Amino acid sequence: MARDAGATVDRILEGALAVLARSGPRKLSISDVCQEAAVARGTLYRYFASKDELLDAVARYVGRGAESRLALAIERQPDPAQRVEVVFDVITRFDWLHPGHRQILEHEPRFALAYIRDVFPHFVDLAAAALEPAADLIPTVRDGQLTVRDVAEIALRAGASTVYLPADDAERLTQAMMAMVGAGSYAARR
């Protein structure tokens, strides 16, 4: 039963994201979300009491997606010697809001920017925790020039910039970010 509820909530959140991409948050209608998610209005209200509550849940849902992508990438390549590259690669390839994030940004730039500003510290914490096992392998951290959190923030700022200026070559951006923090020698060792 709980699994069905989780699937329904995910469908509603995905539906809300699709409607957000088309219309933006100010024009988000519960009816449109229900139609997109193929649920009755009463079903949506069983899980979300208001439009604001739904938008808050969407933000948490996107954040969980970022955490899942990072965890999966680390699970696939758990070697601490590859950790910086793995984390940076996830950051440069991550759709910062959702596949429709550019449309959301175009419709409601204030909403998108507020969201990014709100979640940015959490993403820095997440990236820093992921980088921690490789801290001694990052020359600028080992030498005391940067902290692991500094490295995470640099990477996320570069990655977030791709919302506005998409990277033509994500792999090259990953390598450039690694070179900026003195971790460029990882690519040469592979």
Properties at a glance:
mainly alpha; Tetracycline Repressor, domain 2; single chain; 11 helices; 0% strand; disordered C terminus; 190 residues
What can you see in these coordinates?
Helix 1 (2-23) packs across helix 2, helix 1 crosses helix 4 (51-76) and helix 7 packs antiparallel against helix 9 (148-161). The protein has 11 helices and no strands. 73% of the residues lie in helices and 0% in strands. The chain has one domain (2-189): Tetracycline Repressor, domain 2, CATH 1.10.357.10. It starts with a helix and ends with a helix. The model is unreliable at 186-190 (pLDDT under 50). By secondary structure, it is an all-alpha fold.
Quick structural summary:
This protein has eleven helices and no strands. It has one domain: Tetracycline Repressor, domain 2.
List the helices and strands and how they pair.
Elements: H1 2-23, H2 30-37, H3 41-47, H4 51-76, H5 83-93, H6 101-107, H7 109-131, H8 139-142, H9 148-161, H10 170-180, H11 185-189
Helix pairs in contact: 1-2, 1-4, 1-6, 4-5, 4-7, 5-9, 5-10, 6-7, 7-9
CATH domain class name: Mainly Alpha
Helical content (DSSP H or I, runs of 4+): over 70%
Give the full name of the CATH homologous superfamily. Answer: Tetracycline Repressor, domain 2
Oligomeric state of the chains in view: single chain
Number-wise, the strands total 0
Which geometry do the CA atoms define? elongated
| Beta-strand fraction estimate | under 5%
Largest sheet: none
Report the total helices: 11
Q: Could you say how many structural domains there are in total?
A: 1
Report Rg: 19 Å
Task: Quote the distance from N terminus to C terminus.
Answer: 47 Å
Question: From the helix content, strand content and strand pairing, which structural class follows?
Answer: mainly alpha
Secondary-structure element pattern, one letter each: HHHHHHHHHHH
- The assigned CATH architecture is Orthogonal Bundle
Low-confidence stretches: 186-190
